[in-house]
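Reviewer 2 asked us to include a model.

Predict the structure of this chain.
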Amino acid sequence: MQIKRPKRKTVMQFMMVILAIFIIRAYQQQDLTIGMVPSFTSHTLTGELMNSNPLPDQAVLIHFWATWCPVCNLENDNIQSISKDYKVLNIAIQSGTDLDIQTHAEDNDMKLDNIINDQSGSISRLFGVKGTPSSFFVNTKGQIQFTEVGYVTTLGYRLRLWWAGL
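Predicted model (structure tokens):
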């Protein structure tokens, strides 16, 4: 029995796709804020006042997403799962009015008490966000320990938040 090996051309194409993904990710992450988390305060869709202050005993996730983003919609269940155990600031950018976002959130089983509408784009500019979804993992000292642009698994979120909370 002879094992069929992939042709060199197929391997090279696969490597080019991987390289392209890394280049795109590097571009999207080049202007993201690092160091201390920028300070901001905003109201959620339910009117609750939320801020970017760190918690003394737990890491915080600041997550930028959009209603029109298919990757964000795919990742929604991961964020909802994480928000049961961690403080999550779920910031909607370029997604319309509060009512538009609330309708989207209700249709997709999202919690409303941690969603902030960044309609003006001021918070996303503060963090240097160019692409969605973008996630910032803030440690207990208020420093951004990890950043991610693109899809992250629930396990990936949990591990980064656990590490940032040490």
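The mean pLDDT is 91. The longest strand covers residues 87-93. We have added this to the supplementary material.
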